[in-house]
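Researcher: Here's a chain I'd like modeled. Treat it as a single chain, no partners, no ligands.
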Amino acid sequence: MVQEHPPLNWQLIGAILGATAVGILLSYLILRFARKRKAILPSTSISLSNPEKLGSPSEDQKQADLKLPDLAAEIVRNRKIAAQQLNDKPSPFETRVWDACQYDIHKLPTKLQDQLKKVYDDIHLANSLTWLSTEWSKWSPIVLKQYTELQSAIAERLSKIRDL
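Model: Modeled as a single isolated chain. Structure tokens:
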């Protein structure tokens, strides 16, 4: 006597395998984001205090104190990029220091925090347009117009940031 098994439902098997793959991918992405955020947050801070008042600063504090001058230097370089005449291939703005210390700007005055957030939002958008057009290997007139508008908005916002 031979037992007959019901036919395999290939759609069900495909759905189970697909759900497993999505679960693994989501777990990987969540862990990667958590590790990246952990790596950024503890080591980056902007310290406005005077290190001499605190005695001997730790190595982390010394690194933290360097972030504010680095951010000020990055803003100066971005002012130069924003003031450049637009050529065939616009230059991307710098964001390395901001990306490293943006989580610690709560130590700065509120008005300055708002100014920095707004200008770096525009800078990231302009950099996205630059990247996109580089990937396409051409600048369309519409994208070029949007980049030009962003460039002038960035220049205006950067000129208002003087407190750093």
